Amino acid sequence: MVTASEMVRTDSVHGALYSDEAIFQAELEKIWYRTWVYVGHVSEVPKPNDFVMKVLGPQQVLMTRDRKGEINLLLNRCAHRGNQLCMEQKGNRSSFTCPYHGWTFSNTGQLRGFPFASGYDGADRSKLGLGHVPRVAQYRGFVFGSFAAEGPSLEEHLGAARDALDRLCETSPSGEVEITAGFLQHRAKSNWKFLVENETDGYHPQFVHASIFSVAKSGIGELYGPQSTAVARDLGDGHTENDLRPEFRRIGKPMNWFGTNAERLPEYVASMKAAYGEERATQIMIDGTPHVMIFPNLFIAEIQIFVIQPLAANETVQHVTALQFKDAPDLNRRLRQQTMGSVGPAGFLLADDAEMYERTQRGVTGASKPEWNYLGRGLHRERRDENGFLVGDATDEVTSRGIWRHYRSLMEAG
Amino acid sequence: MIEAQDLLLFKEIEQFVYREARLQDSHEYDAWEALWTDDGMYWIPANGDDIDPESQMSIIYDNRSRIALRIKQFHTGKRHTQTPRSRLCRVLSNVELLESTGNEYRVTANSMIFESNARGDTIWGARTEYLLRRESDALKMAKKKVMLSNNDKPLYTLSFLV
Q1: Residues of B with CB below 8 A from A183's CB?
Q2: Residue A393 — pLDDT band, cuts 50, 70, 90?
Q3: Same domain, A167 and A110
Q4: What are the beta bridge partners of residue A223?
Q5: Could you tell me if residue A1 is inside a domain?
Q6: Do A345 and B119 touch (CB under 8 A)?
Q7: Contact A345/B157, CB-based, under 8 Å?
Q8: DSSP SS3 for A177
């Protein structure tokens, strides 16, 4: 039997990587329960003792802010019999009591007590706390967890993707983004890696999204055309982006990246200029927000974030919500409206993406041939940019190849 | 005591919501769009039935121009998720006139929708609220709020008219 790593070649990948349940189990162990995975944002738990239900891979995780203000990621599973501890999606509480036998845990995971305690004489309470994600770290308010007790730091893991998060936050006049609009949950009968690849596949938009681009008179299609000066970039460590700035700079109009103009957002434009000065603010508003896929599960798509959750080899959920910029109400309303129109189960864009995820999944299932998917687009014109990153033309598959190169290194690791 | 006039009104309303259901099942997009008033609002909330759509994400929160855009997208023939179209069969029941005010009627109904498409077979269930308005002698739809029973869970693509 060939191993997962032998199924990844320079210009092609084997279909079983998307459909084999044993490979999926190996991915849980080697990727989802090891590397840094995005879980939530600090703005979802703004006050001490706030909590919100999140996911890390297939598992439910309680993201809590304890009374000291620290963020904890606790498994939503009672340490006694494994009962689901919390059934609320969010709230504010300093402790959680299991409804089954009344065990109570603090929001840092310690066991506070159990009823009829004489039955536990001699038990070591310190060993009976909630399971938790051992490493929790945040970057610009984005909270990640790693089930590996040791390993690269979050900053090392993010590598060049840190710059994308910095760019995103800089588009907010306060330098902060917030996640406050609630998530749509869009399920697809497809492998999670089809989603990861699609997020920075600059080749598909003109075809998959032709319907909405034509009726909404959107300029997005041209950004991903053969004449586009945008680039597809492999940021390393599995992170990839479609850098649209060359196109936005060529056009040179503030807020064009958002399909509008400065006159329509006077409050936002004024607060950006007050925060960054005329020249810098204008540049930021020309450049726009990034389109970056942070491996394995955080996709920042200009105006929204997607969080990818794998459930099985052929089942994935995309959690998606509008980005909200702190102190920019006029922009935030438009961010929500555009997000609701384009993404989620009924979205003008994402319903068609999900259709392709599911059709490709059916294509790779079973012994159908050819069993290799070809990812060689633009291999002959791959080049290094001024920072040493591999880049290709806007529609090239340099991004997919970067994702798979990193995937192979993770699956080969002991 | 119920007057004969009330029964006629109720029958008219019932026929209207059945007609709307049939136009959705048979993908008669233009005839469906013609049921809307100029200020129509089509709303499918997420994460509960009573969220504030002005601050929280909804599955659909279409004003009249966005309803028109949705219909135009179907007509391109490149709305892949509806090419081929879902085969649909819905049962509408529990039609109830809650309130009449002037020329407006607040109506509820329940629907069970069987969808068959390339992915497989999916059953959708929803409680629906309508605000109907009489305009130049015909009933029109001013608001439709579809409260899916599973709107707090991950949902497969929902790209037909619900």
Answers
A1: 47, 57
A2: very high
A3: no
A4: none
A5: no
A6: no
A7: yes
A8: strand
Contact B80/A at CB under 8 A: yes
| A81 and A169 in a common domain | no
Instruction: Read off the pLDDT of residues A217-243 as tens digits, 9 standing for 90 and up.
Output: 888 989 999 999 999 999 999 999 999
- Tell whether the model's pLDDT for residue A1 goes beyond 70: no
Q: Closest-CA residue in chain B for A360? A: B119
- Give the pairing type, strands B36-45 and B138-148: parallel
Tens digit of each residue's pLDDT (9 = 90 or more) over A52-67: 999 999 999 999 999 9
**Are residues A230 and A346 both part of a single domain?**
yes
Question: Within an 8 Å CB–CB cutoff, is residue B1 touching chain A?
Answer: no
Strands B87-101 and A177-178: unpaired
**Residue A278 burial (CB count, 10 A):** 10
For chain A, the average pLDDT equals 96
One of 1.10.510.10, 3.40.980.10, 3.10.450.50, 3.90.79.10 is the CATH number of B4-148, namely: 3.10.450.50
A270 shares its domain with A220:
yes
* CATH number for position A43: 2.102.10.10
Q: Residue A11 domain-assigned?
A: no
- Residue A332 pLDDT > 80, yes or no? yes
Residue at which a domain ends, from A118, A146, A174: A146
Per residue in A128-181, pLDDT (tens digit) is: 999 999 999 999 999 999 999 999 999 999 999 999 999 999 999 999 999 999
pLDDT for residue A5: 80
- DSSP assignment of B25-60 equals HTT-HHHHHTTEEEEEEEEEESSSSS--TTTS-EEE
Do A338 and A276 lie in a common domain?
yes
How does pLDDT run across B58-98, given as a tens digit for each residue? 999 999 999 999 999 999 999 999 999 999 999 999 999 99
d(CA B9, CA A412): 71
Among B22, B122, B127, residue whose Cα is nearest residue A187: B122
Residue A277 lies in a domain: yes
